[in-house]
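#onboarding

Welcome to the new folks! Below is a worked example of what a typical request in this channel looks like: someone posts a single protein sequence, and someone else replies with the predicted structure as tokens. Don't worry about understanding the tokens yet, we'll cover that in week two.

Example request:
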Amino acid sequence: MPVGRSSMIPDSGPLHPQEGHSPHGWTPLLDAMLQGVILVDAEGRFLEANLAAAKILGLDRGTLLSLSLPEPWSNLSAADGSAFVVDDFPGTVALKTRMPVQRRAMGWVREDGSTLWLEVSAEPLEGAGALVRFDDITEHRIQSGKVEAEVLEAYQYNEQILRSAQEGIIVYDRELNYKVWNPFMEQLTGLPESAVLGKSPIKIFPFLEDTGVMERLATALGGEVTHSPDFPYYVPNTGKTGWTHVVCAPLRNARDEIIGVIANVHDITKLRKEQEELRRMSGELERRVKERTAQLEAANREMEAFSYSVSHDLRAPLRSIDGFSRILLEDHQDQVDEEGKHCLTRIRLGTQRMGNLIDDLLKLSKTSRSELTLSDFDLSRACGRVAGDLADLNPGRRVEVFIQPGMMVLADHRLMQAVLENLLGNAWKFTLKCKDPRIEVGETASPLGERTFFVRDNGAGFDMAHADKLFNAFQRLHSAAEYDGTGIGLAIVQRIINRHGGRVWAEAEPGQGATFFFTFPQRDEQ
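Example response:
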């Protein structure tokens, strides 16, 4: 900028302060300006100050005109907060050098302690004196400070993410050389950041040539996101090996220009080991299942052979014993005394009981081996039919039977029929000695979310101390002399209910009756 008069100040000759009025009538021109403007003479005395200057500095015009440089800026500070050298004030410099001084930011501490930030420039006037201009940039500084703080906070936030990430984060420049190498990568490879920055990946890890990673980095540099297949890695200086998966994406600046590539490196070594172990265990499990299936098939064949043997080979001698005993009693009774007849009768009862046991064994065997065929089963109606059959077989008995209506389950009809026949049959049998026998069948709420059904009677009951024997084959809590039966029925009930995904138990007191519970999963779980 050439030395000379200000283009904004009229050429009016030398400046001299005059008492009581503005020199040469410049006040209206200066007051029209938004900038703060002060005219000083060659000694730095204030000749004129416009309204904007008075407003910005918070001083009236009369006070300003009583000052001289470096007042009122004797307590200035530089833009970076350091102390300001008064002789460096733009107005002072312009007076001394007769050269214009470009804008400089500086802070001025007011009397109230607040800081006013100004941007000050000065230029010498032709002849003598200088023109000092300044703008209030306090708000701009505040906003800039906020932006700087936000930028710093964002930087620190991103830096924290980069440093604490539990996966590898790598940034490549446009030449695909390393630019960022986070601590996870240092831990993964054993290579510090300083050992890789600015270098090509192939120079550090030659094995990458065969993985296709470099091609995917180039593709990402073209604007696409790419995923590598899982591949093994090898760190030459440490000998460390493992498996990794890499995702590459273009890195863009604020103008949406691609300036490099950012890669996320996932160490999947542990996952691969777990997958291998899972495959090994799966293979082992499959092998064991095959072995177990073969064993079960062999056991089923043995059971079928046993059932056939029981059904045919054992029945024949039993029929012979029972038949010849009957012949002795009927055709040769005059040759057998009373004690012999009694023995023969006991023999026949024993063989008949043995026949019943064989029948029950076959039923238990079929219960375990038969295939389930599930469909809607009306439990209420089936209970009614079983109760009707029991009444028909015992026309002399009067038993009050209450059955809750509308009970439906998803079950194998044939097997569930056996469950009801056994449970209702037991209730009917053990209420034989009751004055007013009563049997109740219903459904009750369960805290476990199961559908829970019960068969309750007011009969003989039993001691709960022996409840663990109830569902074992041929275990009886009452003697055959009191109540007939083989002790196989409840074992059949338990197997059938277990096969349907439920469970069975009982509660009772001697002489107070018993309640048998059995459960089914909820219908939507079937």
